[in-house]
From TrEMBL:
One of its GO terms (biological process) is positive regulation of SREBP signaling pathway. It comes from Stichopus japonicus (Sea cucumber). It comes from the Eukaryota. Its main location: Golgi. InterPro entries: SPRING1. This is SREBP regulating gene protein. The keyword Glycosyltransferase does not apply. Keywords: Glycoprotein, Golgi apparatus, Membrane, Transmembrane, Transmembrane helix.
């Protein structure tokens, strides 16, 4: 037992082994640091989100005050996707300094309803917002689940924390 322990300690003291551990640690650190997705970006939404109960569930109406913008407000909510106020859905790395999605990026989609059913329920929040911003659909979208309301009002990672949206409920 003592011989195994001493030979193991000798291997640990060799420079090539220490260099190998250092290089592995350096690559691991760089990979985690450079591929990190921003988690605490705050975003400001000055649009009004109206949530009205209907027979089918909820009706959400988004009123955008300024359609011709040079800087964009974006969802800042997803781990890999964001949606800007122009209806573009893109990955975090495709977001321009203005906060807008880069429309020339390969994976950027405009007014995408991918994953949305005929009754306007979407599997991905960012796709739901993008689909709702399409001029033909803009104004009324029926949502059949209260889960979407919770996702709009609260971050899952920080329950109870307000996202900064102005929310008007009926009769307010």
């Amino acid at each position: 037992m003592r011989g195994i322990r001493s030979s193991f300690i000798r291997v640990l003291r060799k420079r090539w082994f220490l260099g190998l551990i250092f290089l592995f640690s350096l690559f691991y650190f760089l990979d985690r640091t450079l591929n990190q997705i921003p988690q605490d970006l705050t975003y400001q939404i000055s649009d009004t989100v109206l949530i009205e109960p209907t027979r089918a569930g909820l009706e959400i109406r988004v009123e955008t005050h300024n359609r011709n913008v040079t800087t964009c407000r974006n969802s800042g909510q997803g781990r890999s996707l964001i949606v800007d106020e122009k209806g573009y859905v893109c990955q975090w790395q495709d977001m321009m300094p203005s906060g807008c999605c880069d429309p020339t990026a390969v994976k950027t989609r405009h007014y995408t309803c991918r994953g949305c059913s005929n009754n306007h329920c979407c599997a991905v929040y960012e796709h739901c917002v993008s689909c709702c911003l399409h001029p033909e659909r803009y104004g009324s979208v029926k949502v059949s689940s209260l889960v979407l309301m919770q996702r709009i009002l609260f971050k899952k990672s920080h329950p109870g924390k307000n996202l900064g949206t102005k929310t008007k409920l009926p009769n307010d």
